[in-house]
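Researcher: Quick test of sequence recovery. Tokens follow.
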């Protein structure tokens, strides 16, 4: 049984599917993307901290 019917028009006709599972998948994708962004930010900060600690006191040349 399809609760929330969604129709997509195509050249060959229509595709009909249940929207609820798609909503759940989209929510998971958004949560995963946010988690990856946090991990990326944390990795960047760790790298910046290491760089600063390793290069403290060295002369900066261009």
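Model:
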């Amino acid at each position: 049984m399809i609760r929330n019917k969604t129709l997509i028009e195509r050249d060959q006709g229509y595709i009909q599917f249940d929207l609820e599972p798609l909503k759940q998948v989209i929510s998971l994708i958004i949560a995963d993307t946010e988690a990856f962004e946090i991990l990326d930010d944390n990795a960047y900060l760790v790298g910046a901290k290491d760089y600063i600690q390793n290069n403290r006191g060295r002369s900066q040349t261009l």
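Strands lie at 5-10, 13-18.
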